[in-house]
Amino acid sequence: MKKNMPPPSRLMPKTAAVEKLGWPATVLFIILVSAIPGAWMKAEGSPLLLSCFVSASFFSAVMLSSLEAHKRSQKLAAERQEETICTFVRQLNCREVDTWIIRAIYEEFLDYFGYPPHLDDRFDKIDPEDIEELAIEISERIGRPLEDTESNPQYGKVHSVRDMILFFTEQSLEERPVETPLTRS
After folding, report:
1. Which of 37, 103, 120, 141 is surrounded by the fewest CB atoms within 10 Å?
2. Residue 150: is it exposed, middle or buried by C-beta count within 10 angstroms (0-12/13-18/19+)?
3. For the segment 69-93, what is each residue's pLDDT rounded down to a tens digit?
4. Whole-angstrom distance, CA of residue 29 vs CA of residue 48
């Protein structure tokens, strides 16, 4: 490898795998959260039947919303089943965008969404804290720290996968955290 060429993005360190909650834990969490409005109403002196009705209504609304989001996610996963990072890269000019940014964003969102991301996938229905955590992971993997982000021209404009690529393209590059064949696990 020539000295002036950056190391290939395949040598980028992988993200530590995070185990997601299974459906029983999710349902239990929703039940517990649904009980809060009913318990509050009961504490305020509302009749028990009304408190139970409010809790059940809240539970139903959260479950329906969750099921709808799950169906939408499954549909996108089925539609994008044949897509790979190659499909993603073809939408970009790799001479203008750092391949490390492309690979890190693709891999992080593939893991987060559960299906291959598209450049136009928006973050409207994603918790901003999740986006921030993903940005921190990506930043650490590509060697572009999240320092002085306010001076980044893309600051406050990250609403899609494409926007996040543009944001990291504008962040300064420190040193790439390269994995060598000897350090890989």
Report:
1. 120
2. exposed
3. 788 888 988 888 899 998 898 888 8
4. 22
Token representation of residue 29: 């969490």
10 Å CB burial of residue 27 (0-12, 13-18, 19+) is: middle
Alpha carbon distance 105, 101 (integer Å):
6
Alpha helix (H) residue ranges in 80-174: 85-89, 99-113, 128-142, 161-170
One-letter amino acid for residue 119 of the chain = L
Of 167, 178, 90, 79, nearest in space to 131 by CA: 167
Quote the tokens at residue 179. 């994995």
In the chain, the percentage of residues whose pLDDT exceeds 90 is: 31
Q: Tokens at residue 11, please?
A: 């040598």
Structure tokens at 102: 């492309």
Tokens representing 182 are 């000897």
Q: pTM, whole model, 2 decimals?
A: 0.70
- Tokens encoding 49: 């039947």
